[in-house]
């Protein structure tokens, strides 16, 4: 008999077929408050769990006594209770390499769109407001040769540094727990304290995952250290930025603008003040959202689940210690 799995994300047709060859599947589109009871029910029998987005916590795991592997179609895993998975010796698999360049492209798009006011000005053109040669009230700020500050130098940080260095001739500062010689040698990046990065950078790109240590790492005090001409770009996880503090800083000119792909609450509530601020470019968490990259992530997650259920994990395990037991 094929092992049972619960899938909570729609799969491309060929990947669905591949899964069906290996497993008996109970399919959901997501794990939500509405369908949670059905998901818990389906988990009674499941040996594998595959998806992304929904919360996988202790309560859910308590309903999955036969679970042997979990695979997320994402690099981030803040939706998972990793300690609880590890305690149960269940490997959690993720897709850290599939989305690197696509997310770095999105970050650069936010840098450019915010600096050059692309969205705001395109809207004015569409509204028929382009009636004469544009003057200073339509001008933006330069990106090339300005200082790029990267907070969190993982794979995406490195890909961003590559773009900033070769594409825009930007000096690069970075803040990270460890030194990244590749970033230093290939892209001339310099490691510094967060305060120095905030004070000296023209673009502060925050690419950190959500952890207890990173929650509200950028708040009022940090924003006050930035140049009033600087742009903050947030593309890791929303709660790393204290959003009310950022809104204040954007309103009172503490910083020039913000480009955001992630938010404290997603989807962004309709009454968020961010929506009415002209110096904000807000995207709907699309860092990795190209057809190709989302397919590659899904394929990687499927491969990861098959490998984990076969006891054949070679890479991409979040809690590899469980494999040694
Ligand atoms: C998507 C992401 O939100 O990979 C991540 O951690 O944040 C994004 O790529 C996610 O993969 C949705 O499937």
TrEMBL record:
CDD domains: GDH
Active site (record annotation): 237, 266, 285 (proton donor)
Main enzyme class: oxidoreductase
The keyword NAD appears for this protein: yes
Domain D-isomer specific 2-hydroxyacid dehydrogenase NAD-binding: 108-287
Catalyzed reactions: glycolate + NADP(+) = glyoxylate + NADPH + H(+); (R)-glycerate + NAD(+) = 3-hydroxypyruvate + NADH + H(+); (R)-glycerate + NADP(+) = 3-hydroxypyruvate + NADPH + H(+)
Known EC number: 1.1.1.79, 1.1.1.81
Matches recorded under Gene3D superfamilies: NAD(P)-binding Rossmann-like Domain
Keyword entries, A-Z: Cytoplasm, NAD, NADP, Oxidoreductase
Family matches, as InterPro entries: D-isomer_2-hydroxyacid_DH, D-isomer_2_OHA_DH_cat_dom, D-isomer_DH_NAD-bd, Glyo/OHPyrv_Rdtase_B, NAD(P)-bd_dom_sf
Domain D-isomer specific 2-hydroxyacid dehydrogenase catalytic: 5-319
Keyword NADP in record: yes
GO terms, molecular function: glyoxylate reductase (NADPH) activity; hydroxypyruvate reductase (NADH) activity; hydroxypyruvate reductase (NADPH) activity; NAD binding
One GO term describing the cellular component: plasma membrane
Subcellular location, record wording: Cytoplasm
Subunit text: Homodimer.
Protein name in the entry: Glyoxylate/hydroxypyruvate reductase B
Species name: Rahnella sikkimica
């Amino acid at each position: 008999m094929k092992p049972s799995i619960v899938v909570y994300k729609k799969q491309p047709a060929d990947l669905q077929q591949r899964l069906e060859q290996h497993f008996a599947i109970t399919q959901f589109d997501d794990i939500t408050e509405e369908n949670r009871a059905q998901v818990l029910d389906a988990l009674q029998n499941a040996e594998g769990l595959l998806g992304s987005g929904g919360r996988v916590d202790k309560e859910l795991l308590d309903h999955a006594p036969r679970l042997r592997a979990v695979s997320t179609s994402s690099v981030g895993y803040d939706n998972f209770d990793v300690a609880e998975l590890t305690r149960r010796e269940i490997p959690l698999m993720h897709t850290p390499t599939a989305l690197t360049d696509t997310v770095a492209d999105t970050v650069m798009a936010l840098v450019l769109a915010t600096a050059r006011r692309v969205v705001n000005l395109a809207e004015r053109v569409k509204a028929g407001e382009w009636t004469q040669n544009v003057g200073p009230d339509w001008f933006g700020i330069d990106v090339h040769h300005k200082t790029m500050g990267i907070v969190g130098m993982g794979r995406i940080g490195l890909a961003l540094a590559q773009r900033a260095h070769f594409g825009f001739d930007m000096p690069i500062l970075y803040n990270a727990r460890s030194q990244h010689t590749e970033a230093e040698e290939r892209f001339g990046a310099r490691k510094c304290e967060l305060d120095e990065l905030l004070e000296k950078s023209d673009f502060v790109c925050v690419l950190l995952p959500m952890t207890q240590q990173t929650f509200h790492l950028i708040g009022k005090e940090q924003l006050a250290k930035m140049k009033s001409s600087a742009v903050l770009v947030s593309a890791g996880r929303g709660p790393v930025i204290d959003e009310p503090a950022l809104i204040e800083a954007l309103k009172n000119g503490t910083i020039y603008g913000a480009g955001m792909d992630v938010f404290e609450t997603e989807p962004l509530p309709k009454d968020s003040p961010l929506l009415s601020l002209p110096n904000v470019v807000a995207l709907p968490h699309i860092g990795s959202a190209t057809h190709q990259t989302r397919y590659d992530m899904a394929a990687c997650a499927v491969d990861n689940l098959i490998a984990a259920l076969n006891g054949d994990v070679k890479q991409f395990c979040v809690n590899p210690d469980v494999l040694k037991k």
